[in-house]
Amino acid sequence: MEHRLTIDRITPQTKEWTSKVQLIEKPRPRKSKDGKTRFQIAVVRDEREEQVVVVLYGEDIEKYADKLTPFSTYLISTAKVRVPLPYGVPINRFEWVIDKFTVVEEVKDDNIQDPPLLPPTRLNTIPFAYLHEQQQNTEFDIIAVVVNCGSIKYVGANNNKCREVVVMDTNVRPTILTMWEDFADTDGSILTAQVAEFPIIVAKRITRASYGGLLLSTRYNSVILINPPYPQVGRLLN
Q1: Is the Cα dihedral 65, 58, 32, 36 positive or negative?
Q2: Quick one: which H or E segment has residue 61?
Q3: What is the distance between the alpha carbons of residues 3 and 138, in angstroms, rounded to a whole number?
Q4: Which residues have a Cβ under 8 Å from the Cβ of 7 and sit 6 or more positions away?
Q5: Do residues 116 and 107 lie in contact, with contact meaning Cβ atoms separated by under 8 Å?
Q6: Where in the chain is the domain with CATH 2.40.50.140?
Q7: How far is CA 180 from CA 103, 119, 211, 222, in A?
Q8: pTM score, two decimals?
Q9: Which regions in the chain score pLDDT beneath 70?
Q10: pLDDT at 1
Q11: Which of 97, 100, 99, 102 is CA-nearest to residue 84?
Q12: What pLDDT score does 136 carry?
């Protein structure tokens, strides 16, 4: 019989468990600092809005590339549960590893008896009025309207790729968010194509830049969610 549990009840000692979760973040795959390990970190949440990181490695990244899509709901069974590794996202005391032994089943929209989870509501964003209080190189989240996107440019001795994006909050405080490397390419290109429609972003784990006053910057483990289905996005649009 299925032993369905919420995230907070699942530990490395839990056996034969299943959890109903919604994928809320799926950053692009990365490589370890030594270049030997390819991995992907995602974040899921349960019906209580508890969150946990799920990690995929190597061939499992491609296996689940089309099976795990943002804001879809899944039944995940018997993933490996462990203490987070140093490169993880510190949102829970444990993290899950999805591998060939893990069972992942999508909950379809037409499942009346066991429907998908409703859109998430839990955000911990910093209002622009308090950005100046954030310490440089500490991570935080924002929700903002994108009003302008610059072109890609290369800066510094190493010709680092970047793109400057102008964002605002409800108090119409324009601030520059610098998107680096693949954020400039992938997310920046999407925002440039949509900028006339003033897309809303939830930028997670960004930081204050260490130069030039109040500037924001992506980091290695940042994620940019474009028009995600949070109710806060709808309120900002209005």
Answers
A1: negative
A2: helix 59-63
A3: 39
A4: 19, 21, 44, 45, 46, 48, 50, 51, 52, 92
A5: yes
A6: 7-107, 128-235
A7: 35, 29, 15, 10
A8: 0.91
A9: 1-2, 210-213
A10: 46
A11: 97
A12: 81
| Listed residue (58, 104, 61) closest to 79, CA to CA | 104
For residue 86, give every residue at least 6 positions away whose Cβ sits within 8 Å of its Cβ, in sequence order, or none.
Answer: none
Amino acid (one-letter) located at 179: M
The Cα–Cα gap between 202 and 235 comes to: 13
Cα–Cα nearest to 43, from 92, 81, 85:
92
224 Cβ contact list (under 8 Å, min separation 6) = 179, 183, 187, 201, 202, 203, 204, 218
Predicted pLDDT at 105: 96
pLDDT of residue 104: 96
Pairing mode, if any, of strands 160-168 and 153-155? antiparallel
Token pair in block for residue 237 = 């649009």
Q: Which CATH architecture does the domain made up of 7-107 adopt?
A: Beta Barrel (2.40)
Dihedral (Cα; 183, 142, 76, 36), 10-degree rounding: 40
- CATH placement of domain 128-235: 2.40.50.140
The full length of the chain comes to 238
Report in angstroms the alpha-carbon separations of 214 from 84, 87, 145, 167, 230. Answer: 32, 27, 17, 12, 27
